[in-house]
Amino acid sequence: MTYQGQIAAVAPGSLADELGLVPGDRLLAVNDQPVQDIIDLSFALADEYVELLIEKADGTQEIHEIEKEYEEQLGIDFESAVFDKVHQCANQCLFCFVDQMPPGMRETLYIKDDDYRLSFLYGNFVTLTNLTPTDKKRIRQLHLSPLYVSVHTTDGDLRSRMLNNKRAGRIMEELRELAEQGIDFHSQIVLCPGFNDGQVLEQTIRDLYALAPAALSLAIVPVGLTRYREGCHPLRVFTPAESAQVIDMVAAWQAKCRSETESSFVYLADEFYLAAGYPIPNYEEYDDFPQLENGVGLVRSFLDEWQQYAAAAVGYDKPFAVDVVCGVSAAKVLGPLLDDLCIPNLTVRLAPVVNDFFGHHITVTGLLTGRDILSCLQSLPGERQGVIIPGIALRKGEAVFLDGMKPSDLEESLGVPVRTAYFAEDLLNLLKEWR
Questions:
Q1: H or E stretch at 312
Q2: Please, which pLDDT band fits residue 99 given cuts at 50, 70 and 90?
Q3: At residue 131, does pLDDT exceed 80?
Q4: Hey, how many other C-beta atoms are within 10 angstroms of the C-beta on 157?
Q5: How far is it, in rounded angstroms, from Cα 339 to Cα 253?
Q6: What's the gap between Cα 423 and its chain centre?
Q7: Residue-wise over 165-203: b if at least 16 C-beta within 10 A, else e?
């Protein structure tokens, strides 16, 4: 089978640059062997002598012979980490967020990947329902560990119904097989009221904890519901009282796990604490923040970074006003911090943005759109000299919101500079030294 790894970027001065490789070229083989992804490529490039088969944009093929140091890199970024096709999801989950996306957005937002390679490489969550015997053999032979697994429930019948896939019911068999082969895994549960909460959740935590130490961590996140749910299964969000019940159950498990393993093992997404009005757990209770990318511990990490860098500032020689944009949930955290911030001549106004684009049930900052931010800021009275937007709302590696708007569009419409803060230190630095 022929695989093609399309080059997206070449580092200046790198081996690839010296060979004359450019974006758009395609890697066909290494040492006369096809490579199906960057996992294969990393093994192939371990040799000190490497032969590359490259296809140029005009279809001509070139062979490049390279002598390199053992750990020396080529200096190539690829369009995709996989050179065949991304393995697609075979499920029809009743809580699937992709099914709740509005029409007319960029194509990548509608892709349902369920690829063990992206799980190993980038921490994408997979369900294990589409693994072939060849996939399992490769995971074992290459020791692709840890993986990130969407479990949702260990009740086989319920999982089959929630994922609309009969193969989903084999989850405990799949996880035990991984554990027996020495493959560790992080896991997650998308919690849906009336489905996999209550006693079902209790049993799921028990089952997964029993697979430790192969089971490294468990994150529990609340189901997200947009206003684009035509044809989707009826679901609702957790009430504050129900969120508190989940917190209390998980807190008991965390205490048990810490007493036995010195690790909390199971962690809740920040939304539960914010919805229930509970304090955010202490820093040490998140251990090494194993699921930070899953929204677990972001608030605690932000708060601790804020305290670390919230030193006194010189201030401004004349009045200066800036708006700080965030989601509705984050306002509960940012509001008190900004109220206590004292910088001479600086006026900071917090601008919590209601999510009209996806619906008011979506309160996280990462799903804000440019249009909603613009509408919110235009509705605020008074003057401003600058706007600070959250980097988490932008596409990774690119200054674009989910709806295609750019920060430069906000600048043009508002007539003031717009700058981006990715975390607490960035935000504080902008507030202290906008100049």
A1: none
A2: confident
A3: yes
A4: 11
A5: 35
A6: 15
A7: bebbbebbebbebbbeeebbbbbbbbbbbebbbeebbee
